[in-house]
Amino acid sequence: MHAKRSISDPRPRRISRARTRAAVGLSVAALAAGATTGAGPAAAQPKTATAAAAAADCSAAYRIEQKLDSGTTWRMCWRYDNKAGLVLENVSYQPKGESAPIKVLNSARLGQIHVPYDDGKNEYDDLTGFNFAQGLMNLAPGECPGGTIKTVKVPDLWTSDNPNVKGLCTTTRSRGHAYRMQGDAANKVYQAQGKDLLVYTVNQVGWYEYMTEWRFQDDGTVTMNVGATGSLSYEDYDAGDGRGWPIGKAAKASATSHSHNVFWRLDFGLDGSSKNSVEQYDSAVTAPAAGQQAPTTKTTRTKVTKEQAGDAKAYRWWRVVSATGKNKDGHARSYEIVPGASTKYPGRGFTKHDLYFTQYNNCELFASNNPGSCGGKSVDKWVNGQTLTHPVVWMNVGFHHIARDEDQQPMPIHWQGFSIAPRDVTAMNPLTPSELAWQNGHWQPRS
Amino acid sequence: MRNIVHRHLGKVVAGAAIAVAGTAVMVGITLPGTAGADETGGTQGTSQAGQQAGQEQGQGQGQGGSVAPGVVEQPPAEGDKGKGRDPLTDDEITRVEQIAVNPQLRDSSEDVEGDRGPQRLTVDLAEPEAAEADDPDAPRRADVTFYDYRDDTLVSRTVDLDSGKVVRTDTQHGVQPPLSQQENVEATNLLIADPLGAGLKADYKDATGKELTSADQLLVTGGVYRATPGAQPAVLDKCGEHRCVRLFPKIKNGSWIDARSLVIDLSARKVAALKN
Asked: Strands A148-153, B71-72: parallel, antiparallel or unpaired by DSSP?
């Protein structure tokens, strides 16, 4: 089956070299539908002067560049890690009206998928103890509608001796209304249908399949989600009272409940600098003073200057602020962290917090069971008072999975994730129609 | 007739995902123990439904009408050297492996089969050093990891691809990253040869009618087992210091077999059962 590979064997392990021709099979229909191109025909890509700057990041074959209908272009590099799976790097956002791409992220990758079962018998660390990365699945064409399926080389792929997996989908998808506003005239409506670039892979670990999806919207928002599907564990049943839910007939077959705790690691590089700062905002609501109509709310900012474990709270949010970049209104560019629904797992130290800000350290790559020597094996241990001059954001999104009848068979996909949204990256809505471009700030109607 | 398989340990488990000529089809196999179940995995009627669902998925998405299915891109032609954050090329991987294993490491270490030279685990593009974070021309480096079965150490070396030098070495005990394919295969062969592998062999025979004699007949993936005080028989107490695995074997084009209650200690070359 597998030829034994010894370290001293000088034979290079070559895969068959692809014949050099343009990306095969990019039909006109696919381009018209907004299919993404990587090593696509040059004619399909509008080249800007700034493309040369982006070109230093990675070769064309590993670059994803997509101009969405509304004029926004997202660019990034992709590669595959033997534990983390898909890694996206040098992610930049260029709305129409910006002459150069605006770098957002140095690196975006999963930090862990941690799955403890309620009966205490199994606790999986899918990225660091299991073959998550080696379980990349081939996608059928129908699984990447309107898109392009790229080949990913996966050493030690467990399902086949051929390491080439048709496993990375890049496509575009409409998300519905981006905005709507009635114009002054009764028959004038300003509306736009938003378009997103989707980049996703599917990894099978045991009976579960995890879809890792990165969604880049034309308004600058990035949403990351992991979708769990595949099958419930075949043999984890009947773990006792309060530990499962019957999914067979009547009271039979109580599937054991478990948690999925997914971590993302985001390394921001706003406007090409890693020296971002972090700010926390909290609002306090006060009862009306005598004679006051309504309660009042006051929002205050706290600078996060040192490593910190953060917990979600009502009226609390964080943003990562560019060191160098300002928009045309003179405001510092930033990205705001927008959490999704999450159930924090209190059972382990590293899952006790919703997010962590750590000082960049290239050894710190996985939120738990981190294999490198970084003085601590999990993200909670790395929060130790270092000053933040290059912050890395770790998001923890948890889901307590109590099975239901609908989970068989296959299990309907369940998504967990969060977003980062631009705050003051542009001086106006990046999709503002030109007729409304003058309505910035406290504008006055003009005759 | 023997009642269905799952009392052998390994348990034959339903629900194989079969890739058929580029189309992913989820085939539902009736669960063992269901009345009227076909033990060889009857799929009457279900594959049609699965295929239809797969095709329908591609239609009706986006606005107004059908969207074309995705187009498969050819793998890129690979040069010798990658640029920037490109994945490591085959040539680069071979180079760094050779650089990372110096004669001293090769002569003093052992792989999972007991042969000379450490067990290769992974080669990954390294993250940049902190000072290089904003430098688009930062050097390309690779992190190479090995496991030395002679003294149960995890050896990590970072190689600078420009200079051809090892720039960092790290040695740890008690750290167990995921298993390589070669290690999973070795663990499977140890299990097959062990009396505790009888259940696995019986389940394989039930499902295929053939004898299981080698890991070649299965697809295997595995998970690291790390001991917790009191949670396993004494013979497995060193798991964590030792490299131990629980296997997830799958019959080729067939079903899973649940072998999770068996742990193979690859360092001691022993198989043991976890208490239930």
From this structure: parallel
Residues of B numbered 215-244 whose beta carbons fall under 8 angstroms of chain A's beta carbons: which are they? 215-216, 219-224, 226
Which B residues in the span 37-66 are in contact with A, Cβ-Cβ below 8 Å?
A: 54-55, 57-59, 61-63
Asked if the Cβ–Cβ distance from B70 to A144 is below 8 Å, we say yes
Closest residue in A to B73 (Cα) is A150
pLDDT at B78: 86
Distance CA B270, CA B236 (A): 9
B136 shares its domain with B97:
yes
What is the extent of the structural domain holding B129?
A: 90-172
Domains and their CATH numbers in chain A:
28-434 (2.70.98.20)
State the ipTM, two decimals. 0.86
Give the residue from chain B lying closest to A150, CA to CA. Answer: B73
| Any domain includes B61 | no
Mean pLDDT, rounded, for B30-35: 30
Report how many domains make up chain B.
3
Interface residue of A1, A4, A7 to substitute, partner B, most B CBs within 10 Å: A7
Whole-angstrom distance, CA of residue A237 vs CA of residue A248: 10
For A82, phi then psi, to 5°, come to -75, -5
To the nearest whole Å, the CA of A207 is away from the closest chain B CA by: 9
User: What average pLDDT does chain A have?
Assistant: 89
CA A351/CA A398 separation, integer angstroms = 8
Is the previous residue joined to A409 through a cis bond, with omega within 30 degrees of 0? yes
Mean pLDDT of chain B: 81
**CB < 8 Å to A410, chain B:** 26
Confidence grade of residue A191 (pLDDT, cut at 50, 70, 90): very high
Q: Is B147 on the interface with A (CB under 8 A)?
A: no
Q: What is the pLDDT of residues B189-237, one digit of tens each?
A: 999 999 999 999 999 999 999 999 999 999 999 999 999 999 999 999 9
Contacts of B115 in chain A (CB under 8 A): 6
Q: In Å, how far are A30, A305, A383 from A314, measured between CA atoms? A: 45, 22, 23
Chain A residue numbers touching B63 (CB-CB < 8 A): 174, 193
Q: What 8-state DSSP symbol labels residue B70?
A: P
Q: What is the pLDDT of residues A356-396, one digit of tens each?
A: 999 999 999 999 999 999 999 999 999 999 999 999 999 99
Contacts of A134 in chain B (CB under 8 A): 178, 181, 221
Name the pTM for this structure: 0.85
Instruction: Tell which residue, A279, A320, A277, A331, has the closest CA to residue A300.
Output: A279
From the candidates A9, A11, A59, A231, which should be mutated to test the interface with B, based on the most B CB atoms within 10 A?
A59
Instruction: State the CATH number of the domain containing residue B221.
Output: 3.10.450
Specify the pairing of strand B262-265 against strand B270-273. antiparallel
3-state secondary structure A239-299: CCCCCEEECCCCCCCEEECEEEEEEEEEEECHHHCCCCEEEEEEEEEECCCCCCCCCEEEE
